[in-house]
Amino acid sequence: MTKTHYDVAIIGSGAGGGTLAYALADWGKKILLLEQGPYLPKSTDNWSPEAVFHHSRYKTKEKWFDIQGNPFSPGMNYYLGGNTKVYGAVLTRLRKRDFQNIQHLGGLSPKWPISYEDLEPYYSKAEKIYNVHGLQNEDPTDPRGTEFPLPPINHEPYIDELSESFKKMGLNPYHLPLGVNLNEQNPRAGKCVRCKTCDGFPCLLDAKSDAAVNAVEPALKKGNVTLIRNAKVLRLNTSSSGREISSIEAEIDGEKQSFKSNIVVVSCGAAKSAELLLRSGTDLHPEGLGNSSGQVGRNYMAHNNAFLMAVKPGKPNTAVFQKTMGINDFYFNDKSGKYPLGNIQLVGKLQKGMLTAEKPWVPSPILGCLADHSVDWWIMTEDLPHPDNRVTLTSGGDLKLSLKQTNTKAHKALIQTFSRIMRDIGYPLILSRILGIETCSHQVGTLKFGHDPKKSVLNEFCHSHDIHNLFVVDGSFFPSSSAMNPALTIMAQALRTGDWIRNNYEQL
What we know:
Elements: E1 2-11, H1 17-24, E2 31-34, H2 49-54, E3 64-65, E4 71-72, E5 102-104, E6 107-109, H3 116-129, E7 132-133, H4 157-168, E8 174-175, E9 178-179, H5 211-220, E10 225-228, E11 231-238, E12 245-252, E13 255-266, H6 270-279, E14 298-301, E15 304-311, E16 325-327, E17 343-346, H7 352-358, H8 364-372, E18 374-381, E19 390-393, E20 399-402, H9 408-424, E21 429-434, E22 444-446, E23 470-472, H10 487-504
Helix pairs in contact: 1-5, 1-10, 3-10, 7-8
C-alpha cells in the first residue's frame, strides 16, 4: 500500500534526522519522518541503574556480528530521538585543525572537503536549538569566536577542587559544553535537577537536550511534518534508470507499506545507514545503492574510548552532577609536542549498580566503596579511517561489523599520561578499561563525503554522488573521527544540508 507522496522523507529521528526535520518544518513542504522505534516510555526505570545497566532496558535486542562471525549487542537505542535519548549531551565543536590532514602516532587523519568556517554558523544555530552551556576562552583549542548561548554549568565543590589542582599543574581545565535545560539562577525556570543519571540514562524530566525534545517535537508543532513511529525501513527502491529513489519500503506494526518522496534522507546511524544502502542493491546497483566508489560501509570509526576511575581512599566524592569538566591539553600534543593524544572529560557519576552490572563477580560492598570514592573519566582518542573497518552483510542478511582498532598507541599514551596526573594530585588507585566494538555511540564514517565521486559516497552537502534524490545526514559523512563527541557536528551539518535542500529543491 502506497501512502501520500511527500516532498522530503527522513529515515531516522536522531541527531541528524531529527535536526533536519526541525530545519525543514517551517518550509511549507510535506515532510515525512520515519522512526523505527516508539516514544521512549517515562518511568522510574529511566533512572534505575539496575534497569538500564543490568537488564539493558532501553538497548536494542538485535544482534550484530563481528569479523569472526560472533554475535554481539550493539549500544543502539531505537526510540524517537535515536541515541540522543541516552547520550551524555556533551555538544562540542570540532577544532579547526580537525578539518585538515593531521599526522598521528598511528597514521594520517585525512582532510575534510569543507572547513571549520563552512560549519561555524550552523554550529552556532545548533547550540541555540540544543541549549548548550559553556564558557568562552577557557579551552585553548576551542575555535569559537562568540559566547555560548547559555552560561557554564557550575562545578560542585569537589570538582572545583579538582579544577584548581589541574590549574596548579599548568593544565587548562574547562567547563564541558553541555546541552541541558538548566537555569542555575532560577531553578524553577529549567527542568534539570542535577541528578546522577545523565550518561547512559534516558531523562525522566526531558531535561537533556535530545533530538526528540529539542528538534522533533517543535517540528511537529509546525503542522508540515508527519511522524510515523515503529516504522522499520526494509529497503529503498530505485527507478528503471537507477538514478533516483522511487519508493521506500517499510514494515509498520507488522504491515508492509510503501512511501514515495521527491527527496529521501537516510539518518539511521553510520552502521545502519550503510546497511540499508547495501541491503537495497539491485541489478543496476549490485554492490548497494550509491556505491560506484566502492566506499559504502568502509572506514567505520567510533573513537578509541576508555573509562578511567581514579580512587582516593578516605575521601568520598560528594559530587552529584559530576559531568562538568574536560581537559584538552593533550588534544594536539603528546609530551614531545609532536603527536595528538585526545580528549579527557568527566562522565556522569558512577554508581554501585552500574559497576555490579559490569563486574557481578566482585562483592557488591567493594564496588560500592570504589564508586563512592572515585572520580570518573572518559578518555577519547581519534581512531583512523581504514577501508577494511567496514559494515557488510552476512550470508543471512544481518549486519556484520569488521573492526580492528587503529591509533592505539596514542590512546594508551593518553591513559598513562592522565593516570600519572591523577596520582600526582593524590589518587593512588587508577582503574581503567578500554571499550570494545559494542561501544558505538560515536560511530562515524561508512559513507564519507568528498569532492571526488570515485573516492567518496556523498558530496559536501551529504548528497549522494550516484542517486539524484538521496541524502545522508548522520555521522556517516565523517572522513575522520577527530577526538570530539560527534553529535554537534552531525546536528550542524544537518542544518547546513537543510539549507541546501531548501535552496536547490526545484533543481533536484
